[in-house]
């Protein structure tokens, strides 16, 4: 399984960014893809996840109403649209995947990690 994250960058507070995760290597549709983020000195925290087969999505309370996770089955990608970004959203964002039918919401649920992509929110 390979996860290739892209789309990070610098954005002003209130701005938007879209992250993408290219997914490959799963032999069935029973997995979920999620995004986690981490800042120096802190634990990696859950941001959002989507169950691949059903499209059900889940969000951390801190991003509800601002972030949207979606999947494109044809392109095997998962996107994270981030709107109204705040300075506290700045972090390294990681794409992650877990086997099974439940959404990954904890780092311990993750079976595969992609590389991180930096999101900086600053004026």
Give the key terms:
mainly beta, 6-stranded mixed beta sheet, globular, 4-stranded antiparallel beta sheet
Order of helices and strands: EEEEEEEEEE
**Strand segment count:** 10
Unreliable parts? none
Largest sheet, strands/sense/barrel = 6 strands, mixed
Helix-strand makeup class: mainly beta
Radius of gyration: 13 Å
What does this entry show, briefly?
Helix content is 0%, strand content 53%.
What does this protein look like?
With 123 residues, the protein is mostly beta strands. The protein is 0% helix and 53% strand. The protein has no helices and 10 strands. The chain has strands at 2-6, 9-11, 17-24, 31-38, 45-51, 57-59, 67-72, 77-82, 91-99, 112-121. The strands form 2 sheets. Strands 2-10-9-4-5-6 form a 6-stranded mixed beta sheet, with no helix packed on it. Strands 1-3-8-7 form a 4-stranded antiparallel beta sheet, with no helix packed on it. Strand 4 and strand 5 form a beta hairpin. It starts with a strand and ends with a strand. The model has no long low-confidence stretch (mean pLDDT 95).
């Amino acid at each position: 399984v390979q996860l290739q994250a892209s789309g990070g960058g610098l954005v002003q507070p209130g701005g938007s960014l879209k992250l993408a995760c290219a997914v490959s290597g799963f032999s069935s549709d029973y997995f979920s893809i999620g995004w986690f983020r981490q800042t120096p000195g802190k634990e990696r925290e859950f941001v959002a996840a989507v169950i691949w087969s059903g499209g059900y999505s889940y969000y951390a309370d801190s991003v509800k109403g601002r972030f949207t996770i979606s999947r494109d089955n044809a392109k095997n990608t998962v996107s994270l649209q981030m709107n109204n970004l705040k300075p506290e959203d700045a972090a390294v964002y990681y794409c992650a995947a877990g086997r099974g039918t439940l959404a990954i919401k904890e780092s311990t649920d993750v079976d595969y990690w992609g590389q991180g992509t930096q999101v900086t929110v600053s004026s």
